[in-house]
Amino acid sequence: MATVTGLFKRLLLGRARRSEELGETLLPKRLALPVFASDPLSSVAYATQEILLVLTLGGLAYVYVTPWLAVAVICLMTVVVLSYRQVVYAYPSGGGSYEVVSTNLGPSAGLVVAASLLVDYVMTVAVSVASGVDNVISALPALAGHRVLLALCFVALLTAANLRGVRESGRAFAAPTYLFVGAVLIMVGTGLIRYLMGDAPVAESARYGIEPTPGSAQLTGLALIMLVLRAFSSGCTALTGVEAISNGVPAFRRPKPKNAAATLAAMGAIAVAMFAGVTTLAIVAKVHIVQDPCRLIGLADCAGYTQRTVIAQLASSVFGGPDSVGFFVVQTATALVLILAANTAFNGFPLLASILAQDRYLPRQLHSRGDRLVYSNGILVLAVVAGLLLFGFKADVTSLIHLYILGVFTSFTLSQTGMVRHWNRWLRTDPDPALRRRRHLARAVNASGALVTGLVLVVVLATKFLEGAWLAVLAAVVLWLMMRAIRRHYDAVAAELTVTDPRADLTPPPRVLALVLVSTVHKPTLRALAYARAFHPDRLQALTVDVDRAATARLKEQWQRLDTDVPLTVIDSPYREITGPVIEYVRHARRTSPRDVIGVFIPEYVVGRWWENLLHNQTALWLKSRLLFTPGVMVTSVPWQLTSSARARPAVRGAGAVRRGAPALGQGTIHLPRDSGPGPGPGPEATPNRSP
User: Fold this and answer.
1) Could you give the 3-state DSSP secondary structure of residue 6?
2) How far apart are CA 483 and CA 363, in angstroms?
3) What is the mean pLDDT of the chain?
4) Neighbours of 448 (CB within 10 A)
5) How many CB atoms lie within 10 A of CB 676?
6) 309 Cβ contact partners less than 8 Å away, ≥ 6 residues apart
7) Rounded CA gap, 280 and 48, in Å?
8) Nearest-5° Cα angle at 563, 559 to 564
9) How many CA atoms lie within 13 A of 593 on its CB side?
């Protein structure tokens, strides 16, 4: 079984990589762009659509606001990109917003950012995959009934690709990302050229009117402002994932900050160009899109009508219909990049979780690198949570989008505020006039970013809170409380384990009593007895529980024939219980001599087949779990490997191996050969141990 599992893992993930190969996984800019920027680039596919979906609640009366909202989103994106370039240079260690805020605004504020980003990374996967499935269904409407299954399959594929390694996932995702960018720019360029030549493309929905929702036909004053702000907040989904590059600076090739900043600038320029082009083309082609197709005036059968996305309608109008090659190229590229956009989260979430685990805010296992030098545990956690979210919300973009972008703007606002404090600290100590001028400019950029993103955060909260954003807020609050509780636990454990008096802690106990648990006289029992002798205890004693008079009598006879000087103590158990009498005997010995140490040696079987575990007594496991809570008692498992255990013996690097992060190898490190084994035989953690 272990061999089959190892072979499957090797085929799925590839060979394990050594720690010193970490440098080979670093990304050049051409691969870093699709790895870290696929989310903001892909959001072009639905950001314009989200603006139109809100504005068309009032029919066609408010669609004229679309270009102004697009300009506002573009200005906001420009400010955010410029602000995060400052973060990349100031904090290149990879903490991104979390490090900036923790350093400048305090640990509690840093945890707010961390919790918000972790929630938003999960939402990135859910929304990106759901949106990608929407575009697949736009091209192939027959798949509409399999929406959730498709979404879960795509999450599984993304997980497998990322478990293979950052560089490998970058290579796999580079072509679809660049294909999407090229296809959208060609579509926009072709459509705008046709418009300038007097042959403007016309969307398939342009012939339909839109019936306003009740009460939204003639909005004025505050109601109109709220509608526009709601549309703007929906369009701000175009900014999701912008912070991922600042979090992933360590994954870049040297010089890391310079390459990361260049990639961030390229991402911003491409995203702005694509978003502006798609929005302009949607206005030119008169795309009419609504949440409920039955609000389309002139549609004969709204119940059976599958509404295509904005990108799909534009591709169809520009390239000659839904059967054209250009349409399928754009839809294929869009579906692929939307699904692959989740890769931004698959890189950002594990890295941030690793940093938080290193700071003791999350379980330490999230700081461990797997076979392929990626944070495998973080990848798996993200995949499971996002999969549950897709299943619970039936992979519906409209339902999921309300939970989205809140965490991003929380991160934006606090990180830019932290950068303002960062520059203030530098300006108080830096006498160089030239440097002071540059830092004044940098502070102005970050202050503008903090102000603008703070206003957007207020807008998002005001317009989306009751529509579902409260769930994201609640999740972030729960996560924040959980991380603080984990840190308190780790701090309490560290304080409890700190050495205060080395001499006292190193003082050996006055006496050691060794107890060997015996159920019958056979080879495992004798091995446990011999092993206990090797420790040279002050007293050595065999212990058994009398639950069967005849069996106990036979055991006494066998023990006498052994002719050993180790006494056999029989504990009476009138109610046929084994664990309770043993625990009480050990505790009584502790009360009699509280300074002595008691070592309990338990012989156990090691088996190789899962069903063999069901055929052997589980008493040893229960005894150990009880004895471990008794102070002054040391529990030792003495394994006896049955023949079947050989087939399950793990290799040096086997499934379930415990790993840490990949440290630099320094002097004094022992390098084992690749085929060297762990020792003479598997220990208790290598294979399941069960008592006879």
Assistant:
1) helix
2) 9
3) 81
4) 16
5) 9
6) 45, 46, 49, 134, 135, 138, 289, 334
7) 10
8) 85
9) 14
pLDDT digit string (tens) for 150-170? 889 888 888 887 777 655 556
The helix/strand/coil state of 690 is strand
* C-alpha distances in Å from residue 97, one per residue of 29, 56, 79, 117: 21, 36, 16, 9
How many beta carbons lie within 10 A of that of residue 295, not counting itself? 19
SS3 7: helix
* 348: nearest Cα among 662, 660, 96, 179: 96
- For the chain, give me the number of helices (H) and strands (E)? 24, 8
Tokens of 343: 């890769």
Q: Which pLDDT band, with edges at 50, 70 and 90, does 12 fall under?
A: low
**Distance (Å, whole) CA 128 – CA 150:** 13
492 pLDDT more than 60: yes
Nearest to 402 by CA among 471, 476, 464, 338: 464
Amino acid present at 677 = G
Residue 199 C-beta-side C-alpha neighbours within 13 Å: 9
Residue 7, classified by CB atoms within 10 Å of its CB into exposed (0-12), middle (13-18) or buried (19+), is exposed
> What does 501-512 look like in DSSP terms, one character per residue?
-HHHHHPPPS-E
- The pLDDT tens digits for 610-655 are 777 777 657 778 888 888 888 889 999 898 888 877 766 655 454 4
Mean per-residue pLDDT, 74-78: 89
**Which two tokens mark 451?**
């102000």
Structure tokens at 19: 């720690």
Residue 597: its H or E element:
strand 597-606
Of the candidates 46, 667, 20, 674, the residue with the CA atom closest to the CA atom of residue 341? 46
The whole model's pTM is what? 0.72
* Alpha carbons 363 and 557: distance in angstroms, whole number: 52
